[in-house]
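Reviewer 2 asked us to include a model.

Predict the structure of this chain.
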Amino acid sequence: MNKELARIFFEIAAILDAGGESFKPQAYRKAARALLELAEDAALIYARGGLKAVEAIPGVGQSIGQKIEEYVLTGKIDYYRQLKRDFPVDLDEVAGVEGLGPKRAKILYEKLGVKNLRQLEAAARAGKVAPLFGFGPKSQANILQGIEFKKRSGGRFLLSEVFPAALDAKEKISALPQIARVEIAGSLRRAKETIGDVDLLAAPKLGAGAKDAAAIMDFFSTLAGIEKIWAKGPTKTSVRMAAGFDIDLRLVGEQSFGAAWQYFTGSKEHNIALRRLAIQKGFKLSEYGLFENDKMAAGKTEEEIYQKLGLDWIAPEMRENAGEIEAAQNGKLPRLLEYGSLKGDLHCHSNWSDGKNSIEELAAAAMAMGYEYLGIADHTHALKVAGGLDEDQLRQRNAEIDALNQKIRSQGKMFAVLKGCEANIDDDGGIDLDKGILGELDFVIAGVHMNFKMDAKKMTRRLVGAAKNPDIDIISHPTGRLLKERPAYELEIEKVFEVAKEHGAILEINAQPRRLDLKPLHVRGAIANGIKLAINTDAHRLAELEFARFGIAQARRGWATAGDIANTLPWPELKKILKRNQKRVN
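Predicted model (structure tokens):
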């Protein structure tokens, strides 16, 4: 229920934004985020303590608490339904097009009757958008470009949207007495940036029969969050989750589990190449096993299948038929970066800028994760919308960090909070800070946060300038893409690689699921150029520190080893490779 309530509150906020409301939208967003972070379902909280218990949820006041109560008791919120009647626009579709937003979506509805993406595209192609006040031919062209991008990414879900539900289903099915093993397969196992649906494979225990299979499928089809059952059978059940994606559960025998897991993990291109290799070696490979003259030669584990084909086992993240099979044949697969191998996170935002949590709260969470350091990279003053800090504010924040580090050391803990910032790269590759403050920081991250529509030559010059800039240690989210929202900048990234290598700039793999920037091809390109990378979460709240696993997955998809990632190093070693340290030494 929490996710559905959060979705409704986010949409209410967007509708209120469209109407020009100043304070109410933020209240609804705050409540939505609080619901998403709750460990307990709001319905259970209400059942235990009524309206007072709901109003005690952080970020929920009396008015919103009453709406939660209404939804728990009736399954609807009249205020939301009235807003939708007055403004019947699919804001996910229309306002989600790059360059629009709720207020411009309202103009399009009032002037042109646009309610959805199809109507928006028709209006733009008919030239009806350009004449509107505040739009113009360039806006119209950008809208059409944004629609094409949105259509290409439609029907896909971010890793963070599906991973928790898949993991929850796996854990619950694993607990059944009839089950020997359950695993995630498909594009989710390969950690693709966006996911179409979720594949689960389960092996019943030896000796399990038809009644056991039926019991497993009955249990799966009644899991919380299921909206519709597409098909239900003895070996496969498909369901639609309320969040919009499908989960398929397949039952396979233990003797064929490895073959099935390999097959249903994919990718399609990897599997085709593997089957071709099997044929060359006199085998037949399918989801049921590896066969030689109709006799099973392997199938219980993936490892034995790859071994029989003369290959080292290939990590799922690499299975894209992008050279991994040849590398496995020749014993040249990289030893990929392991999950949990980061020593720290260098890109977190505190409540000094636009983060939700205090520096002390972030530090405590990082220590609980086993990190040795945490870099606080609050925004700088050019980004006023994100509460960017000026030089005096940075100094005040730094004093707080110094006091916190002293407190941590007095407790005998080996952990450091690092003083950093995320500055803004201007059109020439400079940043929005005076030189005086830079020497007081442990590191400087800088990224592009505005003026995204530069042509390739200008944007390349901008990023090249940043890579050369001796005051910038790490370039954040280097290509600027937002998955399902905004394509990457027009950019000649190979030139950025050349300059980053020459000047020692570190490029970030931003682990935010909306970004996952750099993409795997660029990770491989950076590594080939000898560039150090840093995996950072860009966390704005405690829960987002856990996004590090998605950044590690992205690095693994780009064939990265621990030696390629700067923040696998302890802070004293990492400090040595930062530009500021080298500048002082030289």
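The chain has four domains: 2-152, 157-251, 268-329, 344-585. The CA atoms of residues 55 and 65 lie 5 Å apart. We have added this to the supplementary material.
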